[in-house]
């Protein structure tokens, strides 16, 4: 069951539903009664991307169709998925290989420039031995859109993979990352920020499977929900038999700024090996009332005080982005979203 198979066959019965354990908080079958028609070809100009001028080259998909390809030799590349057709469906797939010993920064954006679209994106990423990849993902969907982004990441020994996802949600949205971790001194960092208002929904799901000795995973996700928004975090780290000396850390922390907002969190550690160091933490609460009172007493309006405190709260995740330009854009995006949300 998947959105991809439903779009391919036209059968809404192929959509995942709340009966599927991993999709119980992101029900697509109960939401989508009929699938919209396929998006038409776009022959006009493409709007400027969210990471304009940072990348040496870019690969661009518009309405699910590839319209530009990045040069393979570039050290910083942009990957864009742009929706420009109202109430239409689109699907796209892309494969990325980082060769042994190479380093790459991937600036990925999902840009909703249309209303009520349904989108499915599948990524296949391979990071070679001793190579490194930093993936920064900005998901800026339209409020009534449905979007599923799934990345399958395979690491070779000694590889490094870092990821930061930033999203403001959609009517239904799921950003899923699955990592095959070989151990063998490979390192993974999986981070995320979700800032949701209105009736927006965001589901950040990750699965990391450690298959060998001496692997490292670090994960930090922070979110804020207001109004009637819903945030979902599902993080699973599997330490397979024989994957001794694994070091895995997971943290999820969320702020709820409305009585009608909701956060569903399911952090999991499945450990089948000895001699490991693994831990996870999960907190959900409101803004610190003392800090809010302190700011207001110094003349800062309540709305600005909430935005300032929330920005500081998620700032820890943004600061972990290694690429300077991408970190600046991410910080500006957070500030812009919070300026309109709290």
Automatic annotation (TrEMBL):
Limits of the SUF system FeS cluster assembly SufBD core domain: 86-313
Origin: domain of life: Bacteria
Xref: SUPFAM superfamilies: Stabilizer of iron transporter SufD
Listed InterPro entries: Fe-S_cluster_assembly_SufBD, SUF_FeS_clus_asmbl_SufBD_core, SUF_FeS_clus_asmbl_SufBD_sf, SUF_FeS_clus_asmbl_SufD
Name of this chain's protein: Fe-S cluster assembly protein SufD
Organism for this UniProt entry: Caulobacter segnis
């Amino acid at each position: 069951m998947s959105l991809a198979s439903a779009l391919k066959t036209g059968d809404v019965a192929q959509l995942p539903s709340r009966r599927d354990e991993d999709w119980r908080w992101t029900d697509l079958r109960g939401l989508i009664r009929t699938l919209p028609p396929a998006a038409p070809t776009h022959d006009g100009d493409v709007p400027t991307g969210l990471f304009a001028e940072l990348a040496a080259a870019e690969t661009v998909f518009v309405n699910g169709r590839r319209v530009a390809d990045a040069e393979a030799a570039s050290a910083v590349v942009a990957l864009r998925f742009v929706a420009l057709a109202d109430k239409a469906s689109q699907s796209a797939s892309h494969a990325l290989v980082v060769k042994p010993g190479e380093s790459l920064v991937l600036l990925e954006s999902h840009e909703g420039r249309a209303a009520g679209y349904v989108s499915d994106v599948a990524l296949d990423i391979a990071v070679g031995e001793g190579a490194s990849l930093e993936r920064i993902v900005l998901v800026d969907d339209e409020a009534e859109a449905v979007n599923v982004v799934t990345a399958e990441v395979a690491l070779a020994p000694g590889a490094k993979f870092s990821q930061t996802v930033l999203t403001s949600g959609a009517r239904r949205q799921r950003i899923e990352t699955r990592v095959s971790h070989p151990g063998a001194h490979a390192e993974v960092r999986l981070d995320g920020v979700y800032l949701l208002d209105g009736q927006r929904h965001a589901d950040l799901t990750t699965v990391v499977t450690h298959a060998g000795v001496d692997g490292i995973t670090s994960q930090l996700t922070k979110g804020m929900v207001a109004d009637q928004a819903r945030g979902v975090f599902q993080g699973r780290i599997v330490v397979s038999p024989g994957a001794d000396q694994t070091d895995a850390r997971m943290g999820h922390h969320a702020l709820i700024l409305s009585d009608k907002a909701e956060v569903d969190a399911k952090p999991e550690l499945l450990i089948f090996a000895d001699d490991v160091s693994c831990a996870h933490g999960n907190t959900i609460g409101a803004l610190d009332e003392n800090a809010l009172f302190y700011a207001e007493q110094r003349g800062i309006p309540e709305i600005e005080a909430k935005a300032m405190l929330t920005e500081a709260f998620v700032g820890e995740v943004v600061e972990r982005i290694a690429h300077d330009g991408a970190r600046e854009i991410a910080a500006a995006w957070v500030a812009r979203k919070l300026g309109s949300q709290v």
